[in-house]
Protein: O-antigen ligase like membrane protein
Organism: Selenomonas ruminantium
Amino acid sequence: MHKNIILHILISMFIVLLPFQDTVFQNMGIGYLGQSVSNVVLLMYIILVVSYKKSYNKKRVVLLCGIPLITFIYSLLMILSYYDSSEFLLYFYRCFSGAVAVFLFFAEYYMIRDNVNILRNMLPKAWWVNFLGWFLCDILRLGFDSPIHVLAPADYPRLCGFASEASMFCFTTTTLTLLCLHYEIDKIKKIIMILFGGYVLLYGGSKGTLISFFIAILLYVVITKHVDIYKKIFLLIIFFVCSYMVFYMYLVEAFIVDFETATSFATRGSVTLLAVFLMYYFPMGTGFGRFVPEYINHITEVFDFLQGVMPVFILKYDEIEDILGRGGGKGIGIFNTFFQYLAFFGIPFLILFISYIKKAFSYIRTTRPTWISILFLFLSVSVFTFHTVNCVSIIILVVFWSEYECNANFNATERKIM
């Protein structure tokens, strides 16, 4: 019984600590696992479950162990030609850490999937912790250069809350807000959450979050069957008018700065395009380890190609040059999940991703309107543009597919009765 209580506490802690994404754990030798405090809690949960559980679901064992093992073996095979290289240990570490990340993805998914009731109860608390982060760090300017803020500087110009940057904070706020709206009944709390979520969305400083959210709404209006054609036309007109106003008021200046400095755009554009180039050279993907040397070998070629396609803008190579000069593979990566894993696993990943999205879109198209459907679309767009899947985004998948299974079971029961 006491073990179940401890597990309950750990799951609750995992959810409540989701907003903390810039803590001292990043400097404790556990790499990317230290980015979110929730990852540390997840590791504690896994250790406890393994220590006392005597029987396991076979399907879950295959997913939790089989898929990470396959990705590790494939990645290892891809770096064998670098066996004599001084960088071989770095590439091996990338293979291992990538497989661990895949394992943790499934581990978190099933941990939350088995405890949706705890999730439902703790999400509002996580939302208020995130709100507290905004108040303390962005309004009172407290907490910087402390254990809860390692990377974000004290003079950070955009909103960041307990996260290291605006994009992470805005994504987390939008996600927690929509999840709470999905579950929350109290109207006053809903109004507070909508007002704060809207404020962060517009003024948080994350172009990716704002654009992804608007595209998600557009997709929902277009694909759902629950809105007739006339309402769709009316909603689309309103959508485009609002989008134009938001773009003009909140995004134009930011994009002008990006194009004038041309550093951020050049880096993100180059690394995203790199995934397409690597698909040509490695149709089955580079694996986790070989991505590092192939990044170094091809990023300049991709940058030159991008500059040739966009001769009007003089793109700056500074940030890419800085990444290449760091050594140890630091900073080498693609800034969104879809293109990163497209580079890692090529055509197999693309096939799985398309089938996954197709199934999800089919459900969204026929089900009644819900906040979680819009949130799933928001996540789907985000992984194409700026977001790397983390603890927060996995919860979206849990809630979405839990609802999918509930509806599928309800429909099956209804058919039997009829």
Notes: Residues 229-261 form the longest helix (33 residues).
